[in-house]
Every structure is written in C-alpha cells, then in structure tokens.
Amino acid sequence: MARLYDSRKRILVTGGAGFLGSHLIDRLLAQGHEVICADNLFTGTKRNIEHLHGHPRFEFMRHDVTFPLYIEVDEIYNLACPASPIHYQHDPVQTTKTSVHGAINMLGLAKRVGCKIFQASTSEVYGDPSVHPQPEEYWGNVNPIGPRSCYDEGKRCAETLFFDYHRQHDLDIKVARIFNTYGPRMHHADGRVVSNFIVQALRGEPITIYGDGQQTRSFCYVDDLIEGFLRLMDTDKSMTGPINIGNPGEFTIRELAEKTIALTASTSELIEMPLPADDPKQRQPDISKARELLNWKPKVELEEGLERTIKYFRTRLPELLEA
Ligand code: NAD
Ligand code: UDP
Ligand code: UDP
Questions:
Q1: Domains in the chain with CATH codes
Q2: Residue 323, pLDDT score
Q3: Whole-angstrom Cα distance, residue 270 to residue 272?
Q4: Which of 151, 165, 182, 221 is catalytic?
Q5: Mean pLDDT over the full length of the chain
Q6: Pocket of ligand 1 (CB under 6 A)
Q7: Binding-site residues, ligand 2, Cβ < 6 A
Q8: Contact (Cβ atoms closer than 8 angstroms) between residue 313 and residue 320
Q9: CA 193 to ligand 3 center in whole angstroms
Q10: pTM of the prediction?
Q11: How far apart are CA 148 and CA 125, in angstroms?
C-alpha cells in the first residue's frame, strides 16, 4: 500500500514495547515513518515507549498477536515474544502460541496487504550447538521436549512458516537470527545475564554465576543490532535470510562478571549457582553473510556497550533499590 504523496511508510512493530522493539521504533520514527506498535505488555512496558507519548507518527495498540489483526500497513517487523528464559518459561504454552499463531497471523496480514515482513528469530534455533561458530547452514541441536523447547521450537516453527509463505505465496520475508543482545531498556528482572550482573553489581549484591562460568556468549549492543535489522529490511526480495545478526566477540560468563565489577567499581563478590537445564555451553555467530550481503558489522565493543548500559541502570537505581 504505497502512500500517495510521500515515501513515508506505515510500519507495524509487534512487541514494540519491549527492549529491542522500542529501540527499533525510535530509529523508524527518526527516519520519518509512521509506526504502529502492537504489544500485549506481557514482558514489555509502557515506560519503554513513554517518551513517544503524543508523537504524531506513533500509535500504540494493546494487542495479542495470537489473535488476528486487520490493519493496513506497508511493512511488518514481528518481534512479539517473551525472550528471556524466566519469561518464556512462565507460560510455555503461551510462548509457543505467540511464536506460531503470532507468525501465522502476521504472515496472513502481510499476504493480504502484500507487504514485506521481518521475523525476529534467534540463535536458540541452533540449540546447544555442536558446530562452532554457528553459520546459517547449521541445522541445530535442539531438545524438542525440554524447558527451553517452547521458545526454541516455537521460533523454529515460525521460521518454517515464514519460508513456506515465501515459497507458497511469494511473500517477501526477512528472517534474522539474533544473538544475545544487551543495552538500555533491558528488563531489570528478566534474569538475563547482562542485566542481572549490572543490577547485582550496582546493588552491591553477590554476582550469580551459573555453573563454573566457563560457558561462553557473544554480546551485541542494541544499536548495532537495530542497524542490522534496517539493512536486512532494505534488501530486495531475493534476500530472505535466515541471517545471523550478532557480535562475534566471545566471552566467558566469568569474564563478563569481572568486567561488570570493574566498570561499576562494585564490591560485589562472585558466587556460583547451579547451571540451568539445557544451558548452551558456547555461542558465537558466524556473521560472514551479514558482512557480505548487508555490508554490516557491529561497531560497539563490549566495554563501551556495558558502560552505556550501566549508565541506564544507574538512572533507574533508586527504583531498583526499592524493588
Ligand atoms: P522483550 O521481552 O523485551 O520484548 C518482547 C515484547 O513482545 C514485549 O514487549 C512483550 O510484551 C511482547 N509480547 C510478548 N508476547 C506477546 C503477544 N502474544 N502479543 C503481543 N506482544 C507480545 O524481548 P526483546 O529482547 O526485546 O526481544 C524481542 C524479540 O527478539 C523476541 O522475538 C525475541 O525472541 C527476539 N530475540 C531477542 C534476543 C535478545 O538478546 N534480546 C535474542 C534473540 C532473539
Ligand atoms: N490474518 C490477520 N490479518 C489479516 C489477514 C489474515 O490476522 O489481515 C490472520 C487470520 O487469522 C488468518 C491467518 O492470518 O487465519 C492466516 O492467513 P491466511 O490468509 O494465510 O490463511 P487463512 O485466512 O486461509 O487461514
Ligand atoms: N547466567 C549466569 N548468571 C545469571 C544469569 C545468567 O551465569 O545471573 C548465565 C546463563 O546460565 C547462561 C548465560 O549466562 O549460560 C546467558 O544467559 P541468558 O539468560 O542471558 O541468555 P541465554 O542463555 O538465553 O543465552
């Protein structure tokens, strides 16, 4: 549905009140587009988008993507889904429904209006990987019946649906596999490692390392990730993905804890806690495709990104100390 008088697009962002969605919306508004944010506020919060209150090109809709949505849009970014293990395991059936029914509804909408649709997939489709680093061709090592399966298999099924709508209905799809991302507006209590460690360090509480802390992750700063989303969306129809978007800089969880303590000048001690079931031992994206096809690579180093994130959590500290 091209607009008559200008190149401004009307863009739907599902999950737009969440961590990543709210940053994406900021960028899309800055580019001059109209944005409709559809979110049921399960893990997202109005605080993430309160600065947009009254913005003439922004509209918030409280909506659950497991139900159909009939609106007119030019592009869809489908981000709606709880992302942290604590959140997605809270109601695992709803998590799978959100990924699967949510994908069907958003794909149905994209098919009806004939627009591009972006899917926020995840490195979790690789499960506990036996290939390292993970290229897009790797099919993964996922437990179909474990506590993480509602998320992993839900996201895998969503990818299947995206590629079947592409093949069967010629839909223009863009599937990004997102690796661990951090930054301002992460939920302070969703149990993800970066927010946990920063909040613990600022409160002077023990830093909880699960297992021996030798498992690795590769952390991408949110602004870099969003740049990757926009570049992927800007490609022509032949570019479907899936494409890894993440920062290949790989760190052990213990290293992350030590960096966080140093950057916050915290007196917190490190303690070891049991490792959760099915916790992947290592994770690092192979981003050769994103480099080559999107001319994209992350720019923000872990220390700089941590500093920016720590600054955000410091502003929220009075409220977090009461929580
Ligand atoms: P988040 O929890 O902050 O945001 C998810 C948003 O989706 C929230 O605002 C939530 O209220 C909304 N939501 C959940 N279920 C919904 C439903 N049924 N209907 C409508 N809205 C619903 O998480 P995030 O980190 O911003 O993640 C955004 C997307 O990116 C998710 O799809 C997630 O799986 C994916 N992802 C994130 C990461 C990461 O490191 N942050 C990594 C891989 C993939
Ligand atoms: N749908 C939606 N908005 C639309 C069009 C479709 O939410 O604008 C939903 C609707 O619930 C439908 C689903 O998307 O069941 C899949 O649509 P599709 O056209 O692929 O299949 P069908 O309508 O035949 O089930
Ligand atoms: N982790 C940890 N302490 C915490 C939270 C997480 O040691 O307080 C570990 C967790 O076991 C995992 C890694 O940090 O090995 C990343 O966890 P997160 O939940 O952030 O992401 P995911 O496991 O989904 O990659």
A1: 8-322 (3.40.50.720)
A2: 64
A3: 7
A4: 151
A5: 95
A6: 14-15, 17-21, 39-44, 64-66, 79-83, 87, 98, 102, 120, 122, 178, 180-181, 187
A7: 68-70, 104-105, 108-109, 111-112
A8: yes
A9: 5
A10: 0.96
A11: 11
